[in-house]
Amino acid sequence: MAMRWSNLFIPTLRDAPADAEAASHKLLVRGGFIRQLHAGHYSLLPLGLKVHDKVAGIVRHEMNAIGGQEFLLPAMHPASIWRESGRWEVMGDEMFRLEDRKGAELALGMTHEEVFTSLALEISSYKALPQIWYQIQWKFRDEPRPKSGLLRVREFAMKDSYSFDVDRAGLDRSFDLHHHAYVRIFDRLALPAIPVEASSGAMGGSGSTEFMVPSNAGEDDVIRCPTGDYAANLERATSMLPPIADRTELVDLTRLATPGIRTIAALGEIEHGAPAVHQIKTMVMVLDGEITLALVRGDHQLNIQKLLDATGTTELRPATPEETVEHLGASPGSLGAVRVEGIRIIADEILRGRVGLTTGANEDDWHYTGVSVERDIAVDQWADLRNVSAGEACPNCGAGLELVRCIESGHIFKLGTKYSEALGATVLDPDGKNVPLVMGSYGIGIGRAVAAIAETHHDDHGLIWPVSVAPYEVVITIVSMKDDASVAVAESLYADLRARGIDVLLDDRRARAGVKFADAELIGVPYRVTVGPKALADGEVEFTDRADGESSRVTCQAITDLVAGAVVSAR
């Protein structure tokens, strides 16, 4: 196929969409890579599809390298298989659901644990294990607020892979294989991904790791140590806190009148009040329909995912004001767990053993002081519930932690036997005993990776694609199509580079040189060779590296070797 700009559909735009906030969204639209059909659904134009395919190719190569076998599974699933796993209700409104003409309930696949597990029913013996199966397939999620171009969409291509082993040791090996493969993938994509401890959420399982790319366009917060010895999603992060000296003089539970006091800060300012570190913050939550009190220290914030993970809750929401008054007898600002009975109480570990605290008395305008947690509060469960904050001490080395906004670019899970037990996928182990398959699940969003690369590699002029995923590796720009000598040299170089397997684009448009240069920078081609009469008079062309903007004169005889060498070494 001739790769001549004059024949290609590359609809570059001067201006970005008015609603575009993320740099990747602006530049992928302006560069003619994507177009929105409706909210959360994008068409990949020829340039966008080339990048998308190159990202998928790298992912596929590294999956094959660890023994992965590629499948292609249906995108539409029967409700029955999701009911077997118990996730038909868990997935809630994010699942696209429909009925066929016979009234059968169906869903568009959000992920494929259930379908792959159903195929694993045909594995009968441990001798066939381990197995690593994967696909690159479209997924559908009814995202309530799609935004940021390809970063948050409702329809997207994803590489999802699944490992099947006879025991936990096998799962650990498969998990490590995927971890190393992901490190190689993100290195080849030129993404500075940070592996972090993460919550498994609705996926379940014993552990998971996210690969997070630092970016202001991200929606996840990562806590990391600047020394590099600790990193975790905010939903799993821990830290070392300095010890707090209890107010041991306050040993008797005492009612304190607090008219009009409704906030932690206000309570710290009144006479006989208490600083936030000596207060208990009480949140009234509804966990799977059950009123529950979640307690954290007054200066801390409750992390909802930690509460979900600690309790195994499927549905969680704050209680309404009416529910709060009904169960506790007071409004927010005067709430507490002292002497509360018949309501589940979950407390953050940092409160364990504390005395001399202050909390609401469950009567408007009244608080308790002298609270001893062990004596006065019937805690049902202790858990890590609080958000870690920047500056707190690393749990490994004590250095001050950093908070980094990131794009989640990959996630790997140790599922264990959750799905194999639910669907009856068992094998005979070496002792002849029937045991459930031990599974792992591993995902990378292809389109999200494209957007993450664009977020990471751009400047004020446009995209700067790494050679490994660039839609074209080199663009040959003819300054003037009226100059026969320039056209002849450019055509010859174009043919030579194509013969060497270089993905080259010939800009043969009858447009001003400035327009051509601007478009080449906008779409982010890594290398540009400019052929024009001025340099040709000296037997030279101009070679420009998009990444640093540096240009140099090169003889016509040397340019082919230079370009081919630069491309091959950067692939």
Kindly describe this structure.
With 571 residues, the chain is α+β, with helices and mostly antiparallel strands. The chain folds into 3 domains: 24-237 and 403-455, BirA Bifunctional Protein, domain 2, CATH 3.30.930; 254-383, YbaK/aminoacyl-tRNA synthetase-associated domain (YbaK protein); 472-570, Anticodon-binding domain (Rossmann fold, 3-Layer(aba) Sandwich), CATH 3.40.50. It is 26% helix and 28% strand. The strands form 8 sheets. Strands 3, 7, 8, 9, 10, 11, 12, 21 and 24 form a 9-stranded mixed sheet that branches. A hairpin with a 5-residue loop joins strand 22 (426-428) and strand 23 (434-436). Helix 1 crosses helix 11 (446-456), helix 2 (46-65) packs antiparallel against helix 5 (168-188) and helix 2 (46-65) packs across helix 11 (446-456). The protein is globular and about 95 Å long. The model has no long low-confidence stretch (mean pLDDT 95).
